[in-house]
Design a protein that fits this description.
mainly alpha; 2 strands; 53% helix; 3 helices
Length: 133
């Protein structure tokens, strides 16, 4: 494992948004679309720290889907009120809320790792040890 200089919070978040390791920026973190590796291939960062760790990634994925749905609905309503085409809106929005969580799944995992490292590592002094590697 190579020594990696500490990243800023914005660097970590940027790396997470592009499916890269929050600590070192390495890619290729997924075997398949839904299957993340256990450890970063470059720096060795272990991703799933405890059982239930990915609940944060689930919340991020749900939040992104809800935000996109809300914006799409408001924009559609803004352009169609008072004659809202309900059926056409459902034809667009229902597939959106089915496909978007699937597309966003790996991104939500790497974003969650970045959020965890950037904003919560100072709470646990054991996390500082991994900066030495």
């Amino acid at each position: 494992m190579s020594r990696v200089p500490p990243a800023t919070k914005s660097q970590m978040l940027g790396r997470g948004c592009t499916k890269r390791c929050a600590r070192c920026g390495a890619g290729h973190l997924f075997h398949r679309w839904f299957d993340i590796v256990d450890n970063c291939p470059r720096c060795g960062l272990h991703f799933e720290r405890e059982p239930g760790y990915w609940a944060g990634a689930l919340a991020i994925n749900i939040g992104i889907v809800a935000a996109v749905f809300g914006v799409a609905l408001v924009v559609a309503l803004a352009f169609t009120v008072p004659d809202v085409p309900v059926v056409e809106l459902l034809v667009v929005l229902v597939p959106l809320v089915i496909v978007l969580p699937i597309v966003g799944y790996p991104f939500s995992k790497t974003i969650w790792v970045a959020v965890d490292r950037a904003f919560m590592q100072h709470l646990d002094p054991r996390e500082r040890l991994d900066e030495q590697f």
